[in-house]
């Protein structure tokens, strides 16, 4: 299958038609489509090294960039096909040739209702200051949830929202808010540089694509400490591991102070897992939600208080809107949205989950 602009766009149209979330292009294989949890190959000729190289060149050319085979090892960029969709393209090298994975980004800004997300996320996004994290594993929908939160603010508030992304995925148009979107590598040299500069851009809300290291976490905390709302993602599977990760990214001698800073600055953590629906119509998000109540802040300040946090989330559901994964999975099971096997497979504590089912 020879690749040029027309054939690349046709391949992406096929991916959209089949509801694929990702398109895989790798020399020696036919193009692959990720549909749900399955990766299937199209029944076309295998790609040659020259084909994947040309696909990389087409995508980078849309940003006015060239592909230097000697220096580029991996790169992330956005790519749009007018009238079809936007894609987050990851270009990498493997076995001496070029590979690509293109993640489909919807052209419309998602709403909480359309994504089966609880409305409490609206009040979470409206917090006037502090750090709000959306966490989960790769492909769990973190970016889409953040886009829905920004969309909610855009429709309901008059704010200046600055996003710092690598690359830009969802394109936001001003509704009631003014939104500035900055792409790492195009509009700013690095995430760290953009975060340091953002406080001089008069933002009310700052969205950071991902907190990856000590410098980005430290700068995000400083922005939250100076009265801004900071939304960010973290590549962690649940709220407790997210809290541990925030502190662990600091040097050992700074971790005690970091724990206090996190306890004061964190406003909410939303962790999510995508669970297959029993009607086979895609996946539904299961959410663990931490909201920084006074009791939770006290537990976070205590070096030995972390084990209390999940219990506080479960007991604060009616009053605060907090919940554990297992509570939400139980709701989805009782509603007939997911199967018992899927609930157990995605539960934080399968044995406790099964015991609670037997006690009902």
Task: Describe it.
With 360 residues, the protein is α/β, with parallel strands linked by helices. The protein folds into 2 domains: 5-105, 2-Layer Sandwich (Beta-Lactamase), CATH 3.30.450.90; 120-359, Rossmann fold. The protein contains 14 helices and 13 strands. The chain has helices spanning 5-17, 49-61, 120-125, 142-156, 191-198, 214-225, 239-248, 255-265, 294-301, 309-315, 317-320, 325-334, 340-346, 350-359; strands spanning 22-26, 32-35, 38-41, 74-81, 85-94, 97-105, 130-135, 160-165, 178-183, 205-208, 229-234, 266-276, 283-291. Strands 9-8-10-11-7-12-13 form a 7-stranded mixed beta sheet, with helices on both faces. Strands 3-2-1-6-5-4 form a 6-stranded antiparallel beta sheet, covered by helices on one side. β4 and β5 form a beta hairpin. The radius of gyration is 21 Å and the shape is globular.
The number of helical runs is 14
- The fraction of residues assigned to DSSP E strands is 15-25%
Q: What is the CATH homology-level superfamily of the largest domain?
A: P-loop containing nucleotide triphosphate hydrolases
Task: Please give the share of residues in helix.
Answer: 25-40%
**Rg value:** 21 Å
Oligomer: single chain
Count of domain modules: 2
CATH fold description of the largest domain: Rossmann fold
The total of beta strands comes to 13
SSE class: alpha/beta
Please mark out the parts with pLDDT under 50 across 5 or more consecutive residues, or reply none: none
Q: Give the H and E element order.
A: HEEEHEEEHEHEEHEHEHHEEHHHHHH
Q: Could you give the distance between the termini?
A: 57 Å
> For this structure, what is the CATH class of the largest domain?
Alpha Beta
For the biggest sheet, the summary is:
7 strands, mixed
Which strand order do you get reading across the main beta sheet? 9-8-10-11-7-12-13
